[in-house]
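One record is set out below.
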Amino acid sequence: MAAEAGGAALLFLAAVDSLVSWPSNRVMLSHDDLSGIAGASLIPLWFWLAAAAAVLGAVRWGTPT
């Protein structure tokens, strides 16, 4: 759930930047800034998602049916 929230927040940030800067035809966040934000927020969340999936998979795999 954290990874989805991080991805949604990143898309929301890019959409707000596009809408706010549309009249001036000048972006507020450059590609490098947005890439840095994405790397700092999404990469740790992907590790969190992978660890959670591994734990849940191990728990479900180990339970008898």
Observations:
- Helices lie at 2-21, 31-62.
- DSSP finds two helices and no strands in the chain.
